[in-house]
Amino acid sequence: MSRTLDLGCGANRDPSATDGMDVSPARGVTIQWDAGKFPWPIADGAYDRVVSHQLLEHLPPRYEGDRELMFVLFDEVHRILRPGGVFEFDTPHARSRQAHELSHRRYFNVESFRPFWDASVMRHAYARRKQWQLLSCRVERVWPFLWHVRRSFPRVGALYERIPGGPPGNIHVRLRRRSERACPRFAALGTDGITEG
Ligand SMILES: C[S@@+](CC[C@H](N)C(=O)[O-])C[C@H]1O[C@@H](n2cnc3c(N)ncnc32)[C@H](O)[C@@H]1O
Questions:
Q1: pLDDT digit string, tens, across residues 6-28
Q2: Shortest-distance Cα residue to atom 15 of ligand 1
Q3: Over 80: is that where the pLDDT of 147 sits?
Q4: What would the mean pLDDT of 160-175 be, rounded to a whole number?
Q5: 20: Cβ below 6 Å to ligand 1?
Q6: How far is CA 35 from CA 10, 39, 47, 159, in A?
Q7: Is 151 part of a structural domain of the chain?
Q8: Is residue 177 a part of any domain in this protein?
Q9: How many domains does the chain have?
């Protein structure tokens, strides 16, 4: 059976998930744990897929003093995924209406995540490890007057998101866990698949 973990599931666990992790207890939470504390109580390669909806922006920027927490967290997701497993997450774009809710501790745009799949953008030790393959990255477009439509009727809202030119909503990223440390094809992948206006 395929195993999927929903990170930061709250009471709204992804229907496809077989497990849910959250710092607070709720229906659907099978692992109550702070995602900012490492290592997570999960075995290596335990999951085929990890999903995370609207969690990353709630986490602090740093771990153990000055380490970028996203690098530590992505390493941990890499560890608990089987080779070839997929990590899918969404988080508000820094320029989106929802980004600046008071419970949010960080603000992202596509560049924030690019080091995970593009070794050429910055001379960073993480990027050079080439642990992830980009499957897709897209930024929703949400017209302000459609905000309430989108919230009340997600399916209709999804159609409106396709209208080009609106301000950004959520960033959606899908990454595949590479099994090897280095991949000669990596450079050729470049930034294909990114759609940010
Ligand atoms: C905006 S809610 C999203 C819930 C659900 N994923 C959804 O899409 O409806 C953020 C969730 O992240 C959880 N959370 C916040 N900080 C966390 C942490 N450090 N570790 C684990 N979960 C955390 C909260 O308890 C909450 O359930």
A1: 999 999 999 999 999 999 999 99
A2: 58
A3: no
A4: 82
A5: no
A6: 12, 9, 16, 33
A7: yes
A8: yes
A9: 1
